[in-house]
What we know:
The protein has 178 residues and is an alpha+beta fold. Helix content is 21%, strand content 42%. The protein is elongated and about 75 Å long.
Amino acid sequence: MAKRWYIVHAYTNFERKVADAIKERAKAGGLEHLFEEVVVPTEEVIELRRGRKVQAERKVLPGYVLVKMEMTDPAFLLIKNTPKVTGFLGAENKPAAISDAEAMAILNQMKDGSERPAPSIIYEIGEQVKVVDGPFASFQGEVEEVDGERSRLKVGVSIFGRKTPVELEFGQVEKVAV
Length: 178
């Protein structure tokens, strides 16, 4: 029987522990030949923490673990009885395998994320922001343009009573609570 990709549903924030537990239990039970890969899909992102850009890891599919395995009764029971696992993705307690193309799309999203870290804060046109860094610090303005690829914004700031467009990085502004 060929190995196929399955999605295992786990408790949120326990995905890594579930993946490790599946690998350990397979090794301990002598079933490691049934499991090819156990992956927690994550991508690298840039977050703003205390005004600084910090590289962090974000889960692509929170609450899910990808497993490439041969679906046999012992393998099914091993995963089903793993702590913090609620079951497989599928209907009526029957695990549904995903296609290799779907699995590759998820795995490629992980690789693309590491090459081009995505900002975790998204700005929208017309949104009010406050400048926290640079020569326009403490000014407030309205987002006029968003350049997600370069992580830059064009913000309309009122200087001497006139609205002036200023180009800023995502890290130089923060959202204003309305």
